[in-house]
Specification:
Blueprint lengths: L1 H28 L9 H13 L3 H4 L9 H14 L1 H4 L8 H5 L10 H4 L3 H10 L14 H16 L5 H8 L6 H14 L20
Helix pairs in contact: 1-2, 4-9, 8-9
C-alpha cells in the first residue's frame, strides 16, 4: 500500500508540474501545435502511454506465432492503414505524422522497441488519449489478430529491407493528385500522352497568368 501511495504521489506531482508548465507557456507565448513538446510534456506523454495499458495486459505475450506469412500480412496492413502517419519505415516522417502534437515517434528507436508486447497491443487496440493515436480495436477476433500481427511488424521495423519498402510503397494509399501524377508518369514512360488535365512533370508547379 505504501508503495502504491508513493507512486501515486509521484504521478500526481509530475502531472501537476507538467500542467503548470503548459499553462505558463500558453500564457506567455500561446499554444501552437507547431511547437516542439517540452520535456515535461514528453514526460506526461510517456506516463499517459504507460498507464493507458491495463496492468493485466502489460505482461501479455504475443499469442500469434511469428511466420513469414504473418509478417507479410502485417506489412500489407501497415502500409494500408498506418503508413499515412507513421511512414512505411515507422519513422513518422510524413506530412501528417510530423505535424501531429506530439509528432509521430520514430518507432525503430528504443522508446518504442523497449515496450512490452502487451503495451504495443494495447496502444494499437485502444489508442492514447490527447494524442493523434486512435484506437483501432473493435473487440472482434479479427481485430485482435490483426493488432497482434502488427506487434510482430513493429518489432521488425528496425530490420526492414529496401525490397520490403518498395513492396509497401505500392500498397500505401495515395491522394487523387498523387495517383494521377503517378499514372501520368507511367503513361509518359510508356510513350503515351499524359491523361487530360494532368500536366507533364516539368510543367507542374508553373503558374500562368
Amino acid at each position: 500500500m505504501r508503495r502504491i501511495a508513493k507512486v501515486s504521489v509521484v504521478v500526481v506531482a509530475g502531472l501537476a508540474i507538467g500542467v503548470g508548465c503548459v499553462v505558463w507557456m500558453s500564457l506567455v507565448r500561446g499554444f501552437s501545435a507547431r511547437d516542439k513538446p517540452s520535456p515535461h510534456e514528453a514526460m506526461m506523454a510517456r506516463m499517459a502511454r504507460h498507464y493507458a495499458t491495463p496492468r493485466a495486459m502489460r505482461d501479455a505475450v504475443n499469442p500469434v506465432r511469428y511466420s513469414p506469412e504473418i509478417l507479410s500480412e502485417a506489412r500489407a496492413h501497415w502500409a494500408d492503414h498506418c503508413a499515412t502517419c507513421h511512414g512505411n519505415d515507422g519513422k513518422g516522417r510524413t506530412q501528417i505524422g510530423g505535424n501531429l502534437y506530439p509528432p509521430a515517434p520514430d518507432m525503430t528507436l528504443s522508446d518504442t522497441q523497449s515496450l512490452r508486447d502487451g503495451e504495443l497491443f494495447s496502444i494499437i487496440e485502444n489508442g492514447i488519449r490527447l494524442t493523434g493515436m486512435p484506437g483501432w480495436g473493435d473487440g472482434t477476433a479479427e481485430s485482435v489478430q490483426e493488432s497482434w500481427q502488427l506487434v510482430h511488424f513493429i518489432r521488425h521495423l528496425p530490420k526492414l529491407s529496401a525490397d520490403e519498402l518498395v513492396e509497401m510503397e505500392k500498397l500505401t494509399p495515395r491522394s487523387r493528385a498523387e495517383f494521377e501524377q503517378m499514372n501520368a508518369e507511367e503513361q509518359f514512360l510508356a510513350g503515351a500522352v499524359p491523361p487530360q488535365g494532368v500536366a507533364p512533370e516539368h510543367e507542374q508547379g508553373q503558374h500562368h497568368h
